[in-house]
Amino acid sequence: MNVFILTIHHPEISFGPEMRLQGFLKSEKFKQNVTPIFPKFVYGKQHTKFDTFMVLVNSIIYITKNRKKIDMIHAVTPPSYIAPIAILAKKLFKIPYIVDIGDPYAENMAEIKNFSHKSCKFKILKHLDNSLYKNADHLVLTSEGITKYISHKIPHTTILTAILHENQIVENKNTTTTPPATTTSPTPNLTTATTTSPTPNLTTATTTSPTSNNPPINKKCIYLGLYGPLQNFEYILKIFIEAIKKDKEITLDIVGQGEKQKCEGLINQCSETDPKIATEIKKNIKFQPPIPKDKIPELLKNYACGIVSLKLNPNLDYAIPTKLLTYLSYGLPVFGTGGISSQKLIKNSKTGYISAKYNIKKDSEKLISLLKNQEKLLNFSKNAEKFAKENLSIEHAGNELLKIYSATLSKI
After folding, report:
1. CATH superfamily of 2-162+393-410
2. Is 220 left (phi over 0), alpha (psi -120 to 50) or beta?
3. Among candidate residues 288, 272, 277, 48, the one with its CA nearest the CA of residue 190
4. Sequence-separated (6 or more) residues with CB below 8 Å from residue 354
5. pTM for this structure?
6. Sign of torsion over alpha carbons 21, 23, 25, 29
7. For position 119, what pLDDT does the model report?
């Protein structure tokens, strides 16, 4: 089965929809039955609008020349301006297509670019979304919440995401690590070469030797990925600053890229208003550069909790961030903010805490309470393993996607 992957994103670089697509492609059963064909990418990590345009042109040329060899198109969104290519291929060459929807593009761009839903820009993008969806043979969604943004009823819809192989999804089993008696360094070690477990370690030796026989509880948190316009990251920082004032063992490592200067300004401002805690805040909240995807397992196993920071906005209620699903796949409990879909997922799976309202005092207390409750963290980790194996494994997603392909082709 020859499937053309219609996308502008390089699968080895992008973290969002391409991470899901990579998951499908890594399934052994999927690989045995499907030959994926990618566009010709003409760029690396940095690319221009012209590079994107050339990817689209190359896609059109390839589909036209090889129309008799392509069985199906797998269109990955956002963006939805790939719509004309998929629709024309179906109407002119009778090639069916499915759409993998990470975000509804019109709503997503309205939030990022801050333009009105009544503007011409929004209406054009919404028209592209609707055209792509209504002509599709099947829709693959990241969450049930996306269905409210689909104007036309599509009978064939599946919620599907793949993050890890099933044998890589495990709960934390190293909950009692005895720290060396001479350990005094407060600096967390972000890589540990002596262990092969991909799961988080809920105890750590980041403080001085304890007087009791019990090792100190790991209170290290991580934020992984982009902190941009769709994130209310300043609110998350305020929660941590408030929490650190009451518990100096709580730390936050921010691994990714975004509005770093703005965030550091907020930290400095808060530090100036409370000089007594200023040193602890600057020491406990650190910014790290982005890391390659293959380094993520080694990194995440050092933390007790993964942080998400999606804006509390009705237009983002559909969203379940990839970072949230990544945390769960590595057995990491989740804390932060998010829309209805994220709240529902975390509540139903019992894997953490997602705030539904802005309340710094309440949320900082929730964070402190969660990080000092080792039993609850362990239960969340077990639940994360269960949820991920049932919903996020590459094997499950690959098998389901193969069924979708087969069912779609059988109708031709």
Report:
1. Glycogen Phosphorylase B; (3.40.50.2000)
2. beta
3. 288
4. 308, 334, 335, 336, 337, 338, 342, 343, 346, 347
5. 0.77
6. negative
7. 93
